[in-house]
Amino acid sequence: MKKTILTVVSASAVLFTLWYMQFGSLTENSGALSKTGLSHPLYFAIWGTLVFFGIYGNLLYSYKKTNINYKFKYLLCAVSAIGMILTVCCDFDYAKPAEYLLHCCGALIFSAATGTCVFLLFLLNYKKSRMFAVFTYIIGLILVADFILLLIFKENALIEAVPVLFALIILPVLNVTNLFKEKEYASR
To answer: pLDDT per residue over 3-61, tens digit each?
Structure first.
């Protein structure tokens, strides 16, 4: 039942993100998810809530499923929650410098804590299967590429959404399938 609920929340977050992105340009700064939030604050709050619970519900379940018992995941979850609250509650408005700074700090905190938590899940399971190893590299590549693109092009909906959508898809796949289990072959 828990896996079903987590999968539904993640799927809802993916669909809502894709729908929400249509309010702005995917590749321009004016279409950044936070900028769109200025004209659609309720949708932005719903988006942030769905994304946070979709990712962290599945993350915490994944850590438990894979028997990774380090307590850092709770710290990263709490820090990330603070980041998302700041992101959603403070406007991305240059005319309000304090709110703008808190918003940007919150987005950075959420992104860094969540990216770290997702990457560590796969890294700590690296030796358990080839799929964990492959996805450790894929996640690392996505995070580094996204950071570089963010520095070059600044924020836009596409750069912001790719790692979020990837996490919202791969974590439920990990939780509900056997894709990440190493196949055992009979000895000959």
So the answer is: 899 999 999 999 999 999 888 777 777 778 888 888 899 999 999 999 999 999 999 99
Spatial contact of 80 and 56, defined as CB atoms under 8 Å apart: yes
Distance CA 55, CA 127 (A): 23
Q: Kindly give, in sequence order, each residue whose CB lies less than 8 Å from that of residue 153, ignoring residues fewer than 6 positions away.
A: 27, 159
- Integer Cα distance of 154 and 134 in angstroms: 28
Alpha-carbon torsion, ordered 141, 107, 155, 112, to 10 deg: -20
Threshold 0.85, pTM exceeds:
yes
C-alpha 45/C-alpha 37 separation (Å) is 8
> How many DSSP H helices and E strands does the chain contain?
7, 0
